[in-house]
Amino acid sequence: MIKQYDLIIIGSGAAGLGAALYSGRYRLKTLVLGKEFGGETAKAGTIENYPGAPAVDGYELMNVMKQQTLAISTEFSNDEVSGIAKHEHCFEVVTGKMTYQTHAIIFATGAERRRLGLPNEKELTGRGVHYCVTCDGPVYGGKTIAMVGGGDASVKGAVLAAEYVNKLFLIVRGKEVSAEPINLERMKTLGDKIEVILETEVKEVVGKNKLEKVVLSRPFKGSTDLVLDGLFVEIGATPNVLLAQKLGVVLDERGHIEVDNMMQTNIDGVFAAGDVVNHFGSFKQDITAAAMGAVAATSAYNDRKVHGELCEMHAVPEHK
């Protein structure tokens, strides 16, 4: 069965939902495809810097945005996209259950948390090694953990984890911690509950059935071994660009989707927004993601006006 849309948005985080809100208001028939609703925002815990929503839970913020889009007839599916193809100005999007056709696509596929790339890391993931404090931090009540990363996300994660744990080590590769002043101040108020280890990397994660310790790149208090109950990794993210690459979308030198100021890629009818692009450099926030989504939807609307009616179902060759 083939269903047709004016616009398909791949990704249901802040960028995808921002795009959906605007495409719905433009009366574009819109489908949002997202395997993990809310993206990274839904896992972020309390968000305090989104205008008009002070101290709101990330998942709740995403749900409110979704309800706004549902009110203007946007459709949602949690099907995972398995294939994508283009024929002239028509696109075919294939999932495990359905085949869709659309005039335009917005990639709001976000980014995947970066791993340390160490032996045994994969085996210990979920067994002491984690990438989401909001998801897994509460299980370490009264225990000792470490957070790897020196940016704002790692500091926010450390402050959140400190609500549960007895002791937390913040392991930073650089010479200083780089975070928003307000988050640094909050971390400092926790005193010696959080101890910062500078100019140090994790070289090994050790354990058989669960994490037992990590090996550091330089001694800390006389030893390179640091015994831990849990290790959380917050060292940035890698953009999810595989689907876009299947269409021949050009990437920039950092592996993000390259877009112009209107979120247009090198392919007519294909746009991108959010963490999958590098439009604002390292400044990646919910508000900028939603704004990029709004711009991308506006571009898709203008594109729809230029290119006329929906694609004929026979216009796209069978997906292989």
Indicate the topology.
Layout: E1 2-10, H1 14-25, E2 30-33, E3 46-47, E4 56-57, H2 58-70, E5 75-77, E6 81-87, E7 90-95, E8 99-107, E9 111-113, H3 121-124, E10 129-130, H4 133-136, E11 144-148, H5 152-161, E12 167-171, H6 181-189, E13 194-197, E14 202-206, E15 213-220, E16 223-227, E17 230-233, E18 237-239, H7 242-246, E19 270-272, H8 286-307
Parallel strand pairs: 1-2, 1-8, 2-5, 8-19, 10-17, 11-12, 11-17, 12-13
Antiparallel strand pairs: 3-4, 6-7, 7-8, 9-18, 14-15, 15-16
Helix pairs in contact: 1-2, 1-8, 5-6
In a few lines, what is going on in this structure?
This protein has 320 residues and is α/β, with parallel strands linked by helices. 25% of the residues lie in helices and 28% in strands.
Relevant terms:
single chain; 320 residues; alpha/beta; FAD/NAD(P)-binding domain; seven-stranded mixed sheet; five-stranded parallel sheet; 8 helices; 19 strands; disordered C terminus; redox-active center
Question: Can you give a write-up of this model?
Answer:
This protein is an alpha/beta fold. It has 2 domains: 190 residues, FAD/NAD(P)-binding domain (3-Layer(bba) Sandwich), CATH 3.50.50; 119 residues, FAD/NAD(P)-binding domain, CATH 3.50.50. The protein is built from 8 helices and 19 strands. The strands form 5 sheets. Strands 1, 2, 5, 6, 7, 8 and 19 form a 7-stranded mixed β-sheet that branches. Strand 11, helix 5 and strand 12 form a beta-alpha-beta unit. The longest helix is centred in the last third of the chain and has 22 residues. It is elongated. It starts with a strand and ends in a 13-residue tail after the last helix. The C terminus is likely disordered. Keywords: Disulfide bond, FAD, Flavoprotein, Oxidoreductase, Redox-active center. This is Thioredoxin reductase. GO terms for molecular function: oxidoreductase activity, acting on a sulfur group of donors, NAD(P) as acceptor. It holds the Pfam family Pyr_redox_2. InterPro entries: FAD/NAD-bd_sf (IPR036188), FAD/NAD-binding_dom (IPR023753), Ferredoxin-NADP_redctase_2 (IPR050097), Pyr_nucl-diS_OxRdtase_2_AS (IPR008255).
